[in-house]
Automatic annotation (TrEMBL):
Pfam families: adh_short
PROSITE patterns membership: ADH_SHORT
Family (UniProt): Belongs to the short-chain dehydrogenases/reductases (SDR) family.
Protein name stated in the entry: SDR family oxidoreductase
All copies of domain Ketoreductase, residue ranges: 7-192
Upper classification of the organism: Bacteria, Pseudomonadati, Bacteroidota, Cytophagia, Cytophagales
Transmembrane portions of the chain: none
Amino acid sequence: MQNLENKVALITGGNKGIGYGIAEALVKQKVNVVITSRTQAAADQAVKKLNALRGGEAAGIQADVRDLKSQQKAVELAVSKWGKLDVFVANAGVGHFGSVETLTEEQWNETIEINLTGVFHGVKATVPALKESKGYIITIASLAGTNFFAGGSAYNASKFGLVGFTQAIMMDLRNHGIKVSTIMPGSVATEFDGNKPNEKDAWKIQPEDMGQMVVDLLQMNPRTLPSKVEVRPSMPSK
């Protein structure tokens, strides 16, 4: 089992939901974490909670995954504070759902730009540092990356693309010693698509479960790579 203490991770969209669950799990393993958010206030609020855990140290920065330069600044923050970057978790995402007849051009563009192009930007920004550390890239995709459904044209396209992108960069980067995995969750109890998590979501995957999965991947023997991990609730909603 790999010791994660003093590793350094960057998590996009780490202020809430799956991203925060991953950040919390890593901080508890004494990993130092940079989280990004759309606003500095949201990042600061999450960082305050993470630092109260008294594990690894956390820092936050406002960054938009649609902007390559903002992703580079997030990497610079991690490297300036801790001298390296070991882990990149591409988590930030958005969902717009509806028939292709009613889906707007703006909704299509935002979905592709955040869920797919945004991951490309994150990878481009982090690869130089990850080559030095022989680090790990983990993308948060979805079961919607292999299972299409009515009303999912934009979301399916972005997640099908993300799964393919992740598997391709795994082939590109493994000779540099960089491991790459994609996690494809089903229903997760988060604020995604306007949901307000409460007791009715108890059957779903929880953000802390996603955090545990990331920890498990990072602790696995370096000789072994689970390149694509599907995860779903063990029991469906009644």
